[in-house]
Amino acid sequence: MGDADDDFLPLRKSSISLPEPVSIATPTPAPVSAASEDLVTLVITTSPTPSAPSTELLEQITNAFRKHCPALTKCCVIMVIDTYDHVSNTARLKKGHVTAEGAAGFAKYKANAKKFILWEYAPPGTVYDEDQFTTSTELAEFGSVGYGHQDNSVTLSVTKTPDGRITFIEPWQRLGFGLAVRSALRLTKTPYVWIQQHDWALISDIPLTSLLHIMQKNPKPDDLETQSIRPPINYVCFPSIRMIRYATSDHVMQYSALRALTQLYKQTFSVTYGGETAQIPLTPMFFWHDKPHIAATEHYLNVVFPNRIVVPRGAFIEDTVGHRARTEMKDGEWKKWACWLYYPDDGKQLCLRHLKGRTWRGAEGESAQVLEYMRLNEEGIENKN
């Protein structure tokens, strides 16, 4: 679903130094009571891409899950297969424009993507019979209430496997990333969701069980005194190249309120399960990013999508709500959003790699492009001679 991360400037290390961290109480370590795959639903958003009809992007994501976060290969999954708005001479995927060739490839991609997910996420020994799938329609409303014949909503085709473990959402019109996520959240039955765009892959191990345990122990407290000691944790993002050393970057250090929050709450949480204790470093984050993250489902719906107008059709969350969230955080409302960044090796370790889904053509397509460049170069040399 796009590479909105490229819209952000690199975070630079600030020359301002942080004061020494104060000692604050951290949650008491306690055993995790439920398997992580039973607490979280994986939401995958995908859309037209130059690599279609190949499923190579999805394959890279699931391969990375197996290596770095196996629980995400065993949980319930909701895939939103977004569509395009227009067929044009030039592809502008972020605007919903595809070429005729891209439209033809995408039609095949939808079928391939569903087959791939059914194969990857079927429980061991299970072969799904598509005749037993359930189908329904839902609506994704947006904007103000329409006038006349305009109701400002998109019809969604929803398909579920008999056991309810796999769900496909296919809109009749383009949703955009924001409405795609909201549509999936409304069908989610677990308390937490992992939001996964189709062109980001894990490159480091993710302690999902420990993170879920921390989030369970740190929901938004009603008691302000408790909240001052135990801040809420309802969203955890994972570091990409632009978020290295986030806690000491200009994104934080240029604002006194954000520096103070970081100095107060940046910490390492202890989680005990299976007789072992894990150390999980987190630092406050002052933005709501679209890149892979885990969040509390109810919190997501209530805070990011409080009404139908906050995210327009075709928009990314970070391009709309993300900036509003940051403004509110600067004004003292960080706990309302409760955003954190996983911070291994004090912010020096990457966890995500961007696959650039809007330009990557798949292995075969990339090879063909290289050969074409070589041919053009040879023609240019011959013409000069």
Task: Briefly say what this structure is.
This protein has eleven helices and 15 strands.
What does this structure look like?
It is a single chain. This protein is α/β, with parallel strands linked by helices. It has one domain (4-14, 27-370). It contains eleven helices and 15 strands. It has helices at 36-39, 56-68, 100-121, 177-185, 208-217, 224-229, 250-253, 256-265, 297-304, 317-337, 362-384, and strands at 40-46, 76-81, 86-87, 97-98, 134-141, 153-160, 166-171, 192-197, 200-202, 235-237, 267-273, 276-284, 293-296, 339-342, 352-354. The longest helix is centred in the last third of the chain and has 23 residues, at 362-384. Residues 2-10, 12-32 and 366-374 have low confidence and may be disordered.
Features:
two-stranded parallel ribbon, disordered N terminus, 385 residues, alpha/beta, 34% helix, globular
Task: Please trace the helix and strand order, writing H or E for each element.
Answer: HEHEEEHEEEHEEHHEHHEEEHHEEH
Number of helical stretches of at least 4 residues = 11
Main β sheet profile: 11 strands, mixed
N→C terminal distance: 45 Å
The largest beta-sheet arranges its strands as 5-6-7-2-1-8-13-10-14-12-11
Count of the domains: 1
- Shape from CA axes? globular
Query: How much of the residues is beta strand, in percent?
Result: 15-25%
Oligomer category: single chain
Low-confidence spans: 2-10, 12-32, 366-374
**What would you call the structural class?**
alpha/beta
The helix content, as a percent range, equals 25-40%
